[in-house]
Design brief:
There is one protein chain. This protein is about 40% helix and about 10% strand. The protein is globular, with a radius of gyration of 17 Å. It has two domains: about 150 residues, HAD superfamily/HAD-like (Rossmann fold, 3-Layer(aba) Sandwich), CATH 3.40.50; about 70 residues. With about 240 residues, it is an alpha/beta fold. A six-stranded parallel sheet has the order 5-4-1-6-7-8, with helices on both faces. Strands 2-3 form a two-stranded antiparallel ribbon. Helix 1 crosses helix 3. The protein contains nine helices and eight strands. About 40% of the residues are buried. Bound molecules: magnesium ion.
């Protein structure tokens, strides 16, 4: 990952996308890979729904699985768990008939990519390699030259300051957090964006209803991003940047 924007070297606003439930659904591939890795490491089947995993980072989820069996994993165990999980994910995503791209995403990403004042990156609990595996499967990886991932932080709230640091390092040292737009499908994404005073957009294409997401008081909440004109109208209003779709 280059961590620069070839098309837009000094963007005015940066959209930071969550992956699962927001850009795509892996059709349960990530969950199956985590459960199978859990089975291998912990010698028991722990259904992911028995832990509160939505919106958590992959590193945090692996730790929660260990803790579920009363164990505290070492750093080495968390790292070993991650690499085995990635191997399994690589397979699971290819045998996941329900995997799909969320409404509007295939149209929105190229338009943001080409926009002279906007850029986009990832703000995700996935490990970088996990993000690549999932997004390459749908030919979407190339839209993201930039991202904050779960290898930098275990708690999602730590990911947003990391994204801001990266932006300041690579774009401009005084880039204002209000010009980052965090988009996600869980209250965790919204809290994480608010943590750095970013604009926040909730989209109810994951496991949370529109109403549950509204309770987290995002700057905007959508059922999904289709028709894309509704999302772009909001962007225009809040960024003063017109997007022709
Ligand atoms: Mg998500």
């Amino acid at each position: 990952m280059t961590q620069t924007f070839a098309n837009t070297p000094s963007p005015r606003y940066i959209l930071l996308w969550d992956i699962d439930g927001t850009l795509i659904s892996g059709g349960g591939a990530g969950e199956r890979a985590l459960e199978k890795t859990g089975q291998e490491f912990l010698h028991q089947h722990i259904p992911l729904h028995s832990i509160d995993y939505h919106g958590r980072t992959d590193r945090r989820i692996s730790r929660m699985l260990f803790e579920h069996t009363g164990r505290q994993p070492t750093e080495d165990q968390v790292a070993a768990f991650a690499s085995r999980y990635l191997e399994k994910l690589r397979h699971e995503i290819t045998v996941s008939p329900e995997a799909h791209v969320k409404p509007g995403i295939r149209k929105i990403l190229p338009l943001i990519d080409q926009h002279p004042k906007l850029a986009q990156g990832l703000l995700t609990g996935n490990l970088p390699e996990g993000a690549r595996i999932k997004l390459e499967h749908f030919d979407l990886w190339a839209f993201f030259p930039f991202g904050a991932f779960a290898d930098h932080a275990e708690e999602r709230n730590e990911l947003a300051p990391h994204a801001l640091r990266l932006t300041r390092q690579h774009i401009s040292p005084d880039f204002p957090p209000e010009r980052l737009i965090v988009i996600g499908d869980t209250p965790h994404d919204i809290t994480c964006g608010k943590h750095i005073r970013a604009l926040t957009v909730a989209v109810a294409t994951g496991h949370y209803s529109l109403r549950q997401l509204q309770e987290a008081t995002p700057d905007a909440a959508f059922s999904n991003l289709e028709p894309i004109s509704i999302f772009f109208d909001w962007l225009t209003q809040h960024t003063g940047t017109r997007i022709v779709s």
